């Protein structure tokens, strides 16, 4: 049976949930996808790293991390990726879940590049690589004969990129608009109910849904990165988050929420894009939503994206409640995609 060796770069909320999901689905991966998976390396920023070519003790690493202890001292993230590249497994996969770097998409871009340079596949829930460097990384992956996948980066594991890539051949996406940031959606709904901003944000932080630096959510950087990622992949755009017209929530937002509600509308943070190729323009705007709009009735932990296409008209994808398991599933689905591609190549 083909073996997949994995290195986890980042072992926070998403990385640890992904590791648990792998343990829970180990037999299913063997039975349904003929894939024997083991994690051989884990690296973090401040909690050390561990490596064992026979497979690391994931439960032990989880317990040490939960207790605030170091995982070990087996090298930097780039060294762990280098050791992954020397594995003799059929598939070598670097799983990137470090924190989003809003200045330039680092350190994640460097991790993806190092993996591809070492002929490892790269999967990530981090928006940085696809929002800042999609074209470059995709070209590099093609040249290396490897996959660069990121289903967990936008709307957690709800299939957006897969939907278009796998099930909508020959369809052109002409634009999109949607609610793609759970933290601000939750805060705006709470303000509408007259609840304090800080308490709503604290709930999202407690659930591990807000970014490590919550200002990335509140100031609209997270939806801007998602808008850039969607525009680059679905519309062949050449956008970075800094080119996305952007607003966030501020001191006057509560008044604006109340004014919209008094007029029978809802104020929501909407990401959108239109155009094609280098003409794609993307934006994140506080928008008053009319009651007959599909975005109006979304629950306060929901996301939704409406794609405008040439052949299928408008398609709406809703995620009723995002959570860490769904993001971790996005990574798992990328792993299965790589296994399927590899099986096809081996048969060819
Ligand atoms: N949380 C969600 O619901 C969610 C949903 C979709 C996408 N995402 C994305 O997924 C990624 C991870 O999110 P998270 O919630 O898991 O974040 P997190 O809990 O803050 O964990 C981030 C992990 O990355 C590690 N790290 C940071 N810089 C590193 C570096 N240079 N080398 C190696 N490791 C490094 C951290 O190390 P330490 O442990 O030492 O700090 C930590 O283990 C982010 O990019 C986020 O935007 C998150």
Provide an overview of this structure.
The protein has 348 residues and is an alpha/beta fold. The protein contains 13 helices and 12 strands. It has helices at residues 13-24, 26-33, 58-66, 77-85, 108-117, 127-144, 161-167, 182-192, 197-206, 215-218, 221-234, 253-262, 324-347, and strands at 3-9, 36-43, 49-51, 91-96, 121-124, 148-149, 173-179, 245-246, 266-274, 281-289, 303-309, 314-319. It has a 6-stranded mixed beta sheet, with helices on both faces. It has a 6-stranded mixed beta sheet with strand order 8-10-9-7-11-12. A hairpin with a 6-residue loop joins β9 (266-274) and β10. α5 packs parallel to α6. The longest helix is centred in the last third of the chain and has 24 residues, at 324-347. It is globular, with a radius of gyration of 20 Å. The two termini are 17 Å apart. The mean pLDDT is 95. Residues 9-15, 43-47, 77, 97-100, 107, 125-127, 152-153, 156, 208-209, 211-212, 324, 327 line the site of NADP nicotinamide-adenine-dinucleotide phosphate.
Any chance you could write out the topology, listing elements then pairs?
Elements: E1 3-9, H1 13-24, H2 26-33, E2 36-43, E3 49-51, H3 58-66, H4 77-85, E4 91-96, H5 108-117, E5 121-124, H6 127-144, E6 148-149, H7 161-167, E7 173-179, H8 182-192, H9 197-206, H10 215-218, H11 221-234, E8 245-246, H12 253-262, E9 266-274, E10 281-289, E11 303-309, E12 314-319, H13 324-347
Parallel strand pairs: 1-2, 1-4, 4-5, 5-6, 8-10
Antiparallel strand pairs: 2-3, 7-9, 7-11, 9-10, 11-12
Helix pairs in contact: 1-13, 4-5, 5-6, 6-11, 8-9
